[in-house]
Each structure stands twice: as structure tokens, then as C-alpha cells.
Amino acid sequence: MSFPPSVSPIDDVQRVLVVTAHPDDVDFGSGGTIATWTKAGIEVAYVIATSGDAGGFDESTPRDSIAGIREAEQRAAAAVVGVTDVTFLGYPDGALYVTNELRRDIARQIRRVRPDRVLTTSPVRDWARTPAAHGDHVRIGEATFDAVYPDARNPFAHPTLLRDEGLQPWTVREMWFSGTPTADHAVDITDVFEQKISALREHVSQLPGELDAMRTRIEQWNGANAAKAGLPEGRLAELYSVISTA
After folding, report:
1. What secondary structure does DSSP assign to 59-88, as a single string?
2. Could you say which of 17, 53, 108, 152 is the most buried, measured as most Cβ atoms within 10 Å of its Cβ?
3. Edge-first strand listing for the sheet containing 15-20
4. How many domains does the chain have?
5. For the residues 215-221, what does the mean pLDDT come to?
């Protein structure tokens, strides 16, 4: 299974909602893209399904403190790229499933933020890239699509959202998926690459060892993306599949 060729992105975006499974997902996959959007005056909000409580590498850190540490790291990283609206849904890390409750919770945030565009991770596994094929990543992509269509726009879906919370239905016009096997829409992040790296450096609990080596790996990865997209030598890019959901 693969995505169809990307549509041309809409050009009148005012608000974007990013939905991921874990703290740091957005910074690895889309940190540069987010920085370009906020620099252009687009409002961006994050919804993160888990607090990353199964993450970390330091065994001396009490496990019951990891969630709070990772939430703080993600808020700091978000601020680096111009994002202040960060919501954690509190689902268990490593045990994220597409449930009616998860769909409802994402639909709630869509109706609250009222985004023109939603960015999430691929619901299709890329077997060539193990990190992108993490089950939580795949399932949050699927749940987010369900929340975009039909849940958020349907006044009769999750009726408590409208009846008890006053959240009016909202139609998202476009979705961007990172980590798809056939990603073909490039965002040139060369000019904001250092901002992306600065955001990633906030995730101290997840980055053992030499941070400069991490920077080199990310630069190589984004350079390969740019070359795949046909950008000039020396440019860096993040890749997506883009679909219309209007």
C-alpha cells in the first residue's frame, strides 16, 4: 500500500495542528517545516498522544518522573520553533491503539484549534525505516485520519463534544503525513536547520552520547531528502505525502 501522488498544498493556511505519538516525534520529522510555518505567521499547535513514559536511557532516573521530564522537554523544543500551544493526551507510551476514545480526543483538539491543515505520521509502515515504522506512529496516523474524517466534521460523532463542551464541527481541508514510503512533497529547511537542531537538543533525556554526531546524522538524512526531491546540492529538506480532505 502506498500514498497517491501529493496534491499541491493549499496556500492560504492560517492554522496547523500537528498530531504525534511521542514527545520529539515532531522535532525529528518536521522541526524544520514547523519553523518555516511559524516564521511565515502561521499558528501551529501540537497534540501529543503519550508523554513518552517508556522512553529515556538513564536507568538512574526514576521511571515515574520520565513523563514529566519529557513533557517539559517537548514544551521547550516547541518554543524553539515558535509553538506555545502543546497538549498531551496522556495515553500509555508503547501501547497506543486506535480506539473510539483516542479518535474523540483528537477530534476535540481539531474542533478547538480549527486548523486548515493537520500534520501527522504515516498510517502506512515504511519497512525500510524502522523508527518510522514504530507501531505508535502508525496508529496515531490512522486515528488522526479518522478524527479528521469523519469525526471532527460530523456533528453526530462523539456527541458530547458538541452537547457538553460546545465544540462545533470543523472540516480540515488538508493533511500532511511524514514518514510515508512514497513521500514526494519537499519542504526546504536549509535556512532553519540550526533551529531544528536546537529544538532536538532540548530532548536531553532521549539523546545519549555525542550530540554533534546526532546533528551529522540528521543533516545527512535531510540532505538525502533534498536530493531525492531534486533540490540543488547542499540543500536540506523534510518530505511528506499531502492529501486533500476538504
Report:
1. TTS-HHHHHHHHHHHHHHHHHHTT--EEEE
2. 152
3. 85-91, 43-50, 15-20, 117-121, 174-178, 237-244, 185-188
4. 1
5. 95
